[in-house]
Design a protein that fits this description.
The N and C termini lie close together (about 10 Å). This protein has a five-stranded parallel sheet with strand order 2-1-3-6-7, with helices on both faces. A four-stranded antiparallel sheet has the order 8-9-10-11, with no helix packed on it. It has a three-stranded antiparallel sheet with strand order 12-14-13. The protein is elongated and about 60 Å long. With about 230 residues, it is of the alpha/beta class. It has eight helices and 14 strands. The protein has two domains: about 120 residues, Rossmann fold (3-Layer(aba) Sandwich); about 100 residues, Winged helix-like DNA-binding domain superfamily/Winged helix DNA-binding domain (Arc Repressor Mutant, subunit A), CATH 1.10.10. The longest helix has 16 residues. This is Response regulator transcription factor. Pfam families: Response_reg, Trans_reg_C. InterPro entries: CheY-like_superfamily, OmpR/PhoB-type_DNA-bd, Sig_transdc_resp-reg_C-effctor, Sig_transdc_resp-reg_receiver, WalR-like, WH-like_DNA-bd_sf. Keywords: DNA-binding, Phosphoprotein, Two-component regulatory system.
């Protein structure tokens, strides 16, 4: 399965940064990018199709202060989770980082297990916010807008509330099949009048909207007694 989220580590410590990247990327959940300077970090973030989901940002960098970079990103409307990393335990230092727009703050040395837990917590919060966007096949998915945007052609596909909920739940399953009954319950809740036929009808209509090849399911797959998003996308 492809990495489900991408993390950018911005740190000039040439021993810590690659080690942290290896430890965060070892289970295949995260695609990890590295930058030793703010200049390189900006280049990574501006790459076409290279969306970053979380930034781990050092405070003291060769070409600037990480807190100033964080504040700059927030002014530009970047809402993804940013976790500051620093060798200082000073309370004023922490407050300054949070005031700059950081979501969390960890002091070095830190345990990687704890850092992973903080990343997961911030992703959960962000994925339930109005600002979240996901990549699904050739599209950028905006759940709050109930909309998919083709990344190359630029056209938009408008979704119903149920179609949005289906895509959102399947995305969070990380490419693993979700059984029909589970998906039915998660999207419709307990409604005796709603059957799997209702779900199948919605899946059919959704495929008509999103599949580039209308005769073949390449994005929304039928698998394992249910449905999943193609993990190879």
């Amino acid at each position: 399965m492809n990495a489900h989220h991408s993390i950018l580590i911005v740190d000039d410590d040439d021993a810590l940064r690659p080690l942290l990247a290896e430890q965060l990327g070892d289970d295949g959940v995260y695609r990890v990018e590295q930058a030793a300077t703010l200049t390189v970090a900006k280049e990574v973030m501006e790459r076409p199709g290279g969306r970053i989901d979380v930034i781990l940002l050092d405070v003291n960098l060769p070409d600037g202060d990480g807190r100033d970079f964080c504040a700059e990103l927030r002014r530009k409307g970047v809402h993804i989770p940013i976790i500051m990393m620093t060798g200082s335990h000073d309370e004023d230092d922490v407050i300054r980082g949070l005031d700059a727009g950081a979501n969390d703050y960890v002091a070095k040395p830190f345990r990687v297990g704890e850092l992973k837990a903080r990343v997961r917590a911030q992703l959960r919060l962000f994925e339930n916010s109005e600002d979240v966007v996901f990549d699904i096949g050739p599209y950028v998915f905006h759940p709050a807008r109930k909309q998919l945007t083709d990344q190359k052609k630029g056209y938009r596909i408008h979704l119903t509330e149920k179609e949005t909920a289906i895509l959102k739940y399947l995305y969070r399953a990380g490419g693993q099949p979700v059984e029909r009954d589970v998906l039915l319950h998660e999207v419709w809740g307990y409604h005796a009048s709603v059957t799997t036929h209702t779900l199948e009808t919605h899946i059919y209509r959704l495929r008509q909207k999103i599949e580039p090849d209308h005769g073949r399911a390449g994005i929304l797959l039928t698998e394992g007694g249910g449905y999943c998003l193609n993990p190879e996308m």
